[in-house]
Amino acid sequence: MNNQTKRVLALLEMFSKGEIVIIENLMNHPLWYGLSEKTIRRDLDIIKSNLSQSFECVRTTKGAYKAVTNSLLENFVDNKMLSLLVIAYNIAKKNSLFSSLDLSKDDKYILENKIKESSKCYEFINKAIENGKLNLDMLKSIEFAIKHAHKITLKYNANSEKIVVYTNPYKIIFINENFYLVTFADDIFSVFRLLNIEEIAVSKDTFHKNYEVLDFIKTMQTPFAKFSPNFKENLIDVKIVVFAQKARYFKAKKFFNSQVIEKENDDGSVIVSYKFTQTLEVKSFLLSWIEDIKILEPASLKDEMKEILLNSLANFK
């Protein structure tokens, strides 16, 4: 076994233990003592070029390396996961959420840099539209209250009106490019924009979570979702025709989780159905496609949309 083989095996052993390999420190190691920095880098290059199918050497800080297994990296570069990670990274970075992750400084650095690399191929035009940074201390208080089912008192700025609410926190959700806190207490389901919460006080009192509410949160499609007991039995069926010139967009993208292509017509149009808790959830969406769709049902939604359009005409006089 020649000296370079011994050095490469020693590097592999260090990496397998999760150690950070620092070039400057290696120069004092018996195997590398008296050798140049270029020699050490050549040893690292052997691992990078010949064992890249097993793991990847990732630079953490200047002159320092750590190995990340490719089974982990493959999860990062899966098409769906990559998109989610990049979005999550952008949100987390903007709101200082990385500081709350239970990771070592070097591991955070690796995670940030691996996701940053996606910017070479991806550009996310639609950014999270939060205008300010989230209060990290307040966020931690909310997380604690959710995890341990503690009641909270929150001060909230609702359209310039300050309100105080004593409630039960269930989940923090990210929907329609904003963060919200979902609460439920005394049969009242509420969704609070996180940036509009001015203060949180965690109570010593605890509560028992309603599992139907938790199930409902998983099915939410908009911040305007309205909870009711046995909600699955009370959903409103919405059905539209999408004209041929725009049908391909609806076939290619699921705009809401409940979207189903019911029928593809001979003229190229498609019939699309949705399920919502109230028509308020879908009105803005339908308005954005108003020239390219026809509402089939419910009749009450057609009447509501007609009224919106007629009232809007006054704005163009």
TrEMBL record:
GO terms for molecular function: aspartate ammonia-lyase activity. Its EC number is 4.3.1.1. The keyword Metal-binding does not apply. The keyword ATP-binding does not apply. It holds the Pfam family WCX. Residues 236-309 form the WCX domain. Keywords: Lyase. It is an enzyme of class 4 (lyase). Transmembrane segments: none annotated. PANTHER family: PROTEIN PAFC, PTHR34580. This is Aspartate ammonia-lyase. It comes from Campylobacter geochelonis.
